[in-house]
Amino acid sequence: MSQLLNNLVEELSSLPSVGRRTALRLALHILSADKSKVDRLASALVHFRNDVCRCSQCNNISDEEICPICMNPKRDHSIICVVEHVGDLMSIESSGTWNGIYHVLGGVISPINGVAPSDLTIAQLEENVRRNSAKEVVLALPTTMEGETTSFFVAKKLENLAVKVTAISRGIAIGDEIEYADPLTISHALKERKSI
After folding, report:
1. Helices (H), the chain
2. Of residues 144 and 12, which shows the higher confidence score?
3. Is the domain of 102 the same as that of 26?
4. Is 75 exposed, middle or buried (0-12, 13-18, 19+ CB in 10 A)?
5. Would the pTM count as exceeding 0.85?
6. Domain containing residue 110
């Protein structure tokens, strides 16, 4: 195999969810694509990596100092949804049901992985709550032990700011069968039940 092809396959297969076979297919597609298209792809990668920044208010990725969500006067700035990563923000945003703003923590507390509270943007969240005179902070963090620990820690940090702290509902997902759900999920689903 060509060493140049092998180098590209190695780099592509280092991306999340891209195995060697997919990387090879992508590399061969790039080889057969129009050179100007490949140049645009390479340029987009370089510009994205060099020019993208973090929103100074919510830690979302942005082209400017303040992201479009934080700049949008039609959003409800008194309600802040706290997420672990930008991908979580994008998932919630794609649902089209959230009209508040966000705060990206940049991870969850995980002593085993060397992630301490000081490694997260919790202080920036506190400032975000003050700046927006927030009425509610919605914690949309993972239901893992680390996510629950982080939720508890964040709630404690916000206690003195006179803001309501809530968490997203947890339970059985649409399309899931109860038979295959774990006990903790079933417990949350029963506690979060509502009238129909």
Report:
1. 3-13, 20-32, 35-51, 68-71, 86-95, 122-131, 145-157, 183-191
2. 12
3. no
4. middle
5. no
6. 74-167
